[in-house]
Protein: Putative F-box/kelch-repeat protein
Amino acid sequence: LTQGPSMKCHRRVSYAVGVVDGKIYVIGGGFKEDEEMQVEVFDPKTRIWSFAGEEKIRWISSSYCASLEGKIITVEGDGDEMAVYNPRQGKREEIIIAKEKEETRRSDYDLLLCVCTVENVLYGCFDHSGFMWFDTKLNVWTR
Structure:
């Protein structure tokens, strides 16, 4: 193993890491939960860290992160709130609030254990509900 270059900003808490178009993006991570910070991007080919745009963004604290449809998605620990960052546009797009369908209603204590993406589908494993996927058209977790 060799040591790579350091990021431009020290990041401490609640940051997200995602890979889009072969580059690694780091979002958030300020000393305070709602601190605005610039997104950094690492290009493994050039081995250079740079800022992704000039805008500082406020990032929600999150437990899990995945890359989906060319965007970086962070998901809170209960799976109910997600933030979307679009690196191609260099900005945070939206906060998604997950809705509930009667047939897939989860308990209030159903915590998300992990997320991953396969072929642009976001999957999550919950401690009570088990394995589910997120329907991005309806904004619901589905079995």
Q: What stands out?
A: The mean pLDDT is 85.
